[in-house]
What we know:
- The protein is about 60% helix and about 10% strand.
- It is an alpha+beta fold.
- A hairpin with a 4-residue loop joins strand 4 (about 190-195) and strand 5 (about 200-210).
Amino acid sequence: MANFFLDNxxxxxxxxxxLMRKIVELKERNFSEKALYDYAPQxxxxxxxxxxxxxxxxGSVCGDVIAxxxxxxxxxxxxxxxxxxxxxxxxxENMKAVNAAGLSGLTLPRRFxxxxxxxxxxxxxxxxxxxxxxxFENIWGLQDCAETLNEFASEEQKMKYLTWVSxxxxxxxxxxxxxxxxxxxxxxxxxxxxxxxxTWLLNGVKRFITNGDGDVSLVLARTExxxxxxxxxxxxxYDKRNGGMKVRRIENKLGIKGSPTCELVFTDAPAELVGDRxxxxxxxxxxxxxAARLGIGAQSVGLCEAAYREALKYAHERQQFGxxxxxxxxxxxxxxxxxxxxxxxxxxxxxxxxxVEIYKQYTHISHERSLESEERQEMxxxxxxxxxxxxxxxxxxxxxxxxxxxxxxxxHGGSGFMKDYACERLYRDARIxxxxxxxxxxxxxxxxxxxxxxxxxxQISRYEQQEYSxxxxxxxxxxxxxxxxxxxxxxxxxxxxxxxxxxxxxxxxRLVESVGHxxxxxLLAHQASEVEEYAADxxxxxxxxEAYIIGAEAYVMNSTADDVALISQVQxxx
Length: 574
């Protein structure tokens, strides 16, 4: 009996973080529902016990059902019949298992039949599901669309759709179109109000829609006639039971083949407006995308865990020249670096989840009552951190998913190139993670202001002021020195950007990743100060951070505006 929670002490550590007390108190509104629902917690300890028990259930479903089905799902895949998606047989089994275990509506309020768990628990569940099968996370994990409805929809819409999601309805985000990928402002699918039917009608095509035949879809559509930019877009919710939408085809993808990526055709499909008109992209999709990026962070970390375990297992089993290959320094170093990156990405994932959780809870409370001055300040503080850390975790985790999957195949050697081993599937699944829900390049664009405006540096200062064990003091001193070097890099880029505006864009990724390396190392050093087991990971990641920053520094400090001009000249030659 495999259990992906009980076999992972790292997950158990993050569930016990000190900020959980504050998160639980905010989420439970001081346990005001304990008299209304028999499954509502009585106090903090009761809540934490519930979280642990449910995470164990998730771990069991992942280990005993989803993971064993992963290879079969990858081979069979979904198909289209009569304009509808038919899931692979293993996916159907997975859905039955998670619904039977009551794992839908994990974070939704109890009045909508949800469990009212913190976001961190949902992220943790997503990670475990992704370790088992990343493609199934794209089906089960999209229930986080319901959080957008919970935040912005009317009470009537919430009761209708959130209750359905808690009962097992699947979700989809219908955003991109053939001519509107990253540039969502170019979306042209029309939503027209019908006086006759007293509803909005959707007409047009959506493409590359993950789990596109989901029961509940959030659709970005153009409601304002004659507009061509973001100001004409609104968010609508579409109920599959009402008809009007057909699945034209399922894309034949490199990886995550169990998840249907669909092209959809809407023909007078009835839908309901969510929130205010014209705010679809500006407000609602941005909230939806931030949640999705955190979800991809969890998916990426789950795949990192799977890749590391596959590589470690094979290195212990495979013998060459009379000994296990793990005993060769070249292999053991790869595994050591893999574990450090895995645990570093996970530390960043749950730090980000905590920031997002606290900000979101204050937002929900502000809809119930006026926030006190101190609460408003806290909400702004965590909002700022959430805005900076969300693209950072998506960037690092998705890139690490690719590098760990790559290294897992390398450790397997020629066998890793064969479909007999899971690492081949992991490698294919990983490749999309630094592309969808915003490419790595777009995450850098989203994160660079947190570098230049001081958000990250201020948080690094807070990390510096924490207490660390004696064993971690050399790591902390190294990080302080690295921070000084990064500040000099930022200052140089800012100065030259005054005359050459593109200079900051040119070096943005180097700056963002330099800061990210420092943040992750601090998180690991703090963990190592509490649990000695993390000491090796903190020391290894510190070396990786130093090597990266020294390389970035050499490039930035020796770079001039002429470098940007040179790139432009090269581009013109193509």
